Amino acid sequence: MQMFNYKALPINVHFGRGRAKEVHSILNEYNFRSVMIITTPEQEADGQKLAEQLGNLCVSVYPKAVMHVPVEVAEQAILEAERLNVDCCLAIGGGSTIGLAKAIALKTALPIVAIPTTYAGSEMTTVYGMTENRLKTTGKDIKVLPKVVIYDPELTLTLPAKISACSGMNAMAHAVEALYAQDKNPIISLMALDSIRALKDALPAIVQDPTDMAAREKATYGAWLAGICLGSVGMAIHHKICHTLGGTYNLPHAEAHAITLAYSVHYNRNADVAAMTQLAQALGGTSHEQVGQLIYELNQKLNISMALKDIGLPEEGPQTVAKIVCDSPYYNPRAYDYDELEQLMQRAYLGLPPN
């Protein structure tokens, strides 16, 4: 076995059905007394309901989180947290709310309690991202790692089937890229494969019946593992493409991940044959050559939008994305080839199979 490094992240995880009802006692356990709840505008009612549950522990509901954490949004939220003199940011929702809490923590070192209601996974990571002048930049800092994460599958029951499917494929992308990460290790690879299997089984069941509680629980488990993968090892070409799609064109984060994943793994199918063979097997196939098609077919089964043009990418997008990705690349197990990447992005733009 090759040499490797493994670092466990210090997060306290509370997992299980009904755990959200314990938020007051969990906050007390960590001695939080002045909490700012962060939501998106669409989830403000959920934030107000949680505020009632918390009583005098909550000093404010801040419903201004938006996709990709624009710098100006982050700056206003930081000022509000400082004005209120809070001792904790409680983010309830998906990547937008948790991302805004991280932006606050990066500047103020305030602890975060995260209650995910999607399968995004960023709650398990030291990764943060912000967008300025149509460019999304990311970084890592231990200050943004949530102190507490509360996973309650019951909170995902109101997540529509299509959003659940896209969010789950977003989570799967974290696990997939962990398999061929520059700093991959056998512990994270075990988690990644179990995550992929869990999501592959759970997401079609949720699309068939959004109230299937067992499937919701399995998807939440898969997303938790995917988040650990994202937080523990580096990502590669797929995440660079999606950060470009989000930062440059403001495409919806989860849908961009879901659509693009088939093309990213097809690009890398021969770069790490052992990892890609494991991925194919986790997806129900046999050969590393199948990975892109297997994910493409899973997206079809999930009724996900198949074309980037359908979620807002303009006609010139494939060329622009390929150029930005190649000009400022992340690590990848295979070298970046502009022509091939541009052709794959054209296929993703049209929703054609990756092969």
Automatic annotation (TrEMBL):
Key words, A-Z: NAD, Oxidoreductase
Homology family: Belongs to the iron-containing alcohol dehydrogenase family.
InterPro entries in UniProt: ADH_Fe/GldA, ADH_Fe_C, Alcohol_dehydrogenase_Fe, MAR
E.C. designation(s): 1.3.1.32
Domain (Alcohol dehydrogenase iron-type/glycerol dehydrogenase GldA): residue spans on this chain: 10-153
Organism of derivation: Acinetobacter sichuanensis
EC supergroup of this enzyme: oxidoreductase
Lineage: Bacteria, Pseudomonadati, Pseudomonadota, Gammaproteobacteria, Moraxellales
Domain of life per record: Bacteria
Keyword Chloroplast: no
Protein name: Maleylacetate reductase
Domain Fe-containing alcohol dehydrogenase-like C-terminal: 165-349
SUPFAM superfamilies the record matches: Dehydroquinate synthase-like (SSF56796)
GO molecular function, a single term: alcohol dehydrogenase (NAD+) activity
Pfam families given in the database record: ADH_Fe_C (PF25137), Fe-ADH (PF00465)
